Task: inverse folding
C-alpha cells in the first residue's frame, strides 16, 4: 500500500506524519488516525495500511512533535512486561503535556490538511485512535462536529473527555474496551453520560483482551481482539461515507 511522509502545519509548528492510501483512483474518504502513546512505528504503519486497503486515505500524525521528531522515546522492537515500566515512565510526561487545548488545535490542523488534499474526498471525515489516541479522537470529533461523521476509540481512556465533550458529538461512535480498562460502575456512568448527551454510539468490552490489545508489538496483543476491532471499525466507516454531519 503506498505511503507518503508528510509535514503538517499546525499553530505550534510542523507535525511530521505519514499517509497511507490506495493505489490509483480516488479521491478517497479521509480518516485521521491517532496513535497510542508509543507513537509512530511499524505496527501503526501496518494498521494504517490495512485500513487504506479498504479504500481510505489515512493520515497518521506524530502526536508529540512539540518534543522533537519521532521517536521521542526509543522503543524496543517488542514491548514486554520487563520493559513496560521504564517505557511508561518516559511516555507519560509526553501524554500529560498534550493538553486538551493542544489536542483541539492539532485536530483543526489535521482535519484542514485532509480537506486540502486532492486525493481526499470531500468530508465529513472519520477519526479513529488507540489508547490515548482514542481519547484524542473523541475530543477531535467533539471539537469539530461538522467535519467528523464517525469516531472509533479502542482501549482508550474516553471517560476523560467528559460530558461537555459528549454533548458536542454529532458523529456515530464506537468504543471498544479491553477487559479491566474500566470498572462496571465507570462503564455504566460513561454510558449514562453518552445517553444523556444523545450520542449515537456502541460500546462494548472485547472478551479476553488486555489494554493495548490491537498492538502486535506488545505482550497485550490479542489476534481475536484486533479482528473484532476491524469487524466494528469497517462497518462504522462504510456507513458514514458521504453521510452529512
Result:
Amino acid at each position: 500500500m503506498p505511503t507518503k511522509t508528510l509535514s503538517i502545519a499546525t499553530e505550534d509548528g510542523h507535525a511530521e506524519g505519514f499517509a497511507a492510501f490506495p493505489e490509483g483512483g480516488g479521491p478517497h474518504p479521509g480518516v485521521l488516525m491517532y496513535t497510542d502513546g508509543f507513537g509512530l512505528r511499524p505496527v501503526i504503519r501496518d494498521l494504517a495500511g490495512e485500513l487504506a486497503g479498504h479504500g481510505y486515505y489515512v493520515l497518521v500524525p506524530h502526536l508529540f512533535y512539540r518534543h522533537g521528531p519521532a521517536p521521542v522515546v526509543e522503543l524496543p522492537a517488542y514491548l514486554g512486561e520487563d520493559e513496560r515500566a521504564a517505557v511508561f515512565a518516559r511516555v507519560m510526561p509526553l501524554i500529560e503535556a498534550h493538553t486538551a487545548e493542544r489536542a483541539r488545535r492539532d485536530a483543526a490542523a489535521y482535519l484542514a490538511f485532509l480537506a486540502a488534499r486532492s486525493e481526499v474526498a470531500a468530508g465529513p471525515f472519520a477519526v479513529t485512535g488507540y489508547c490515548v489516541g482514542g481519547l484524542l479522537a473523541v475530543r477531535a470529533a467533539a471539537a469539530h462536529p461538522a467535519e467528523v461523521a464517525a469516531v472509533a476509540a479502542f482501549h482508550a481512556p474516553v471517560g476523560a473527555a467528559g460530558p461537555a465533550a459528549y454533548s458536542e458529538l454529532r458523529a456515530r461512535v464506537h468504543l471498544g474496551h479491553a477487559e479491566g480498562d474500566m470498572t462496571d460502575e465507570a462503564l455504566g456512568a460513561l454510558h449514562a453520560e453518552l445517553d444523556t448527551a444523545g450520542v449515537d454510539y456502541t460500546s462494548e468490552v472485547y472478551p479476553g483482551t488486555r489494554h493495548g490489545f490491537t498492538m502486535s508489538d506488545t505482550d497485550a496483543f490479542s489476534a481475536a481482539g484486533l479482528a473484532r476491532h476491524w469487524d466494528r471499525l469497517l462497518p462504522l466507516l462504510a456507513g458514514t461515507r458521504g453521510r452529512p454531519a
Summary: The chain is about 40% helix and 20% strand. The mean pLDDT is 95. The CA atoms of residues 114 and 120 lie 6 Å apart. The two ends are 29 Å apart (CA to CA).
